[in-house]
Amino acid sequence: MKLAIVTLILLTLIIAVPPLYTHWAESRRQQQIQEIKQQARQPISETFGSVLALLEGEDPPSVVALYTGGTKSHLEPCGCYQEQSGGLPRRASLVSEIRRHGIPTLLVDAGDIFDGTENIDFQRCQVNLKAMSTMGYDAVALSQNDLNYGDAYLIEQRATASIPFLGENHAYAQPSILQTVGELSIALVPVSTERELPDTNLIIALGTPTSPEHPNIDVIISPEEVEPNQQMNAPIWVGSTPEGKTLGFLALWVNVDGELTQHHAAQLALTGDVAEDHSIRQLLTDFYRDVAQTSEHKPLFTEQPLEQDPQNGYVSATACQRCHEQEYLQWSATRHAFAFETLLKKERYFDPNCVPCHTTGFRYPTGFQIGDNTSAFKGVQCETCHGPGKQHVGNPKKDNIRRASETSLCLECHDTKHSLGFAEVVALHTKDVDHSREPMNLEELLASRVSRIGKPTLELFVMSYCPFGVQAEEKLIPIVKEFGNKIDFKLQFIAQEKVESTAQDITPFTSLHGYPEVAENIRQLLIAQEYPEQYLDYILCRGKKLDKSWENCAEKLGIDVTRIQALFDAPEAEQLFRKNIKRAAELGIRASPTILVDNHQFRANQLLRASGTPCQ
């Protein structure tokens, strides 16, 4: 008896331990990746909420100086991960938010504003100045780095901006700028000025100091990062975060005698939780579109043999799927497959600096081309890692495709600028592209998308009377409830509108299971519209009782049957349904159920681990 018990325990351990260990090892791997990446992304700033109390308190500051410096006309971060801080659209939005609090405000740039020598750099600097003009900058100081560009360049740039340039001995710049801000008179001067200082309440010097002595100057704003000055009877000295990653915030209190009594300095984060200014975003989008037509951005992997072969070309992941179904399914739910959607959400899909690493074969004749909205090469597909596959598809051999075991290929895109900490964990990441792994299910895919982009869109295309569709709803709706407002869930129906309707027709629509299905589809849309808290439960209930009256489920859930029926009989109900089924028609979706996650189409049996015959 004891032997049997021991044997049973051993068998239980043999069966149970490997899956538990596998789960533990995977959790540990993901934890290691996140720990190293987060350590590489140390916060460099504070949230706006940290200074909000100063603006709304009983003793608000006399003036707030908002400042930037060392931007080198950096328009915005690449957006490759959510914590990235910076960007002109966010800066403009935060400046407007601070001004709305009614505190007298200055907006200045401390210098190092120009960068680059190519034509695209010239255009970028002009866009930067246009954006700053729109924000209403009070002054831009010219650093020595800026002056090195020469008078002709600076005169031409000055014509772009309605912002006064601050500098010594130049026709396009002013030696000082006097501002009346609230009840204070403030002079903005170059930090290196040797002129007699104006008689004002505050003197604010912009630029990089060359001398430790700054008599009569109250504040120094440097374009470089500096340690705060702690010396008594010395100017307040603050620095800037490079590339416009933050917005400098300096609150100043001046008493009735005109004395500067206290201050508070901070670097405000410009991360994804800061809204974007629409006009500045449009300015950048227009710039990206223009640049896309003229850019000569170098393609990836030009030194690799497969890319160099003029007889080779790109054929897309769907061509690979024919022979590599398992690998295709595993890839299709990874972040690589969704890479182009990241650009769409960030409105960077025209930016040639971003497109190469979010598409396949960019700048090669047979690969992705900017502006081709129907391209089969969106996302990081098989051929990014394995090389163009035209020859391999025609004659599959080991020597005409790349095995992609060399992680240096990954670092072409996952570099220190776009993927902080990636180089340290690249070996751990190889498991993410192990195509022998089980494809992600819906929960895993949504969790991945939430962590990556914030709020993914999940669409379920069904016919309400379709048995497999009902089965998919039973599996999918609990997942939708679990994620709640972290995802954007949309219920879409598959039906058609009749080309010609007659007076004898009950409805102008047709569906596979006849009028009862059309009617139920419309009712579900109405319940979703009028009872958003109950409609998912109604769908689950109704799926079990399609042979019963719909009123039973409605009444059980507290849905007003009379109200829904009145809406059903109104002409607006048909228009609501017409609008809903348009989505499936545009995408050519005819099979119920079909799942879309951020515009990527999946089979229900893949994401839901379900089996059945689709209705179509």
Describe this structure in words.
The chain is of the alpha/beta class and 616 residues long. It is built from 22 helices and 17 strands. The strands form four sheets. The chain has a six-stranded mixed β-sheet, with helices on one face. Strand 12, helix 16 and strand 13 form a beta-alpha-beta unit. The longest helix has 39 residues. 37% of the residues are buried.
Taking all residues together, what is the mean pLDDT?
Answer: 89
Low-confidence blocks of residues: none
Instruction: Please tell me what the overall shape is.
Output: globular
For the biggest β-sheet, the strand order reads 4-3-2-1-10-11
Oligomer: single chain
Please summarize the sheet with the most strands. Answer: 6 strands, mixed
Terminal residue distance: 58 Å
How many H/I helical runs? 22
What level of helicity do the residues show?
A: 25-40%
Strand-residue proportion: 5-15%
Radius of gyration: 31 Å
SSE-based structural type: alpha/beta
Number of strands: 17
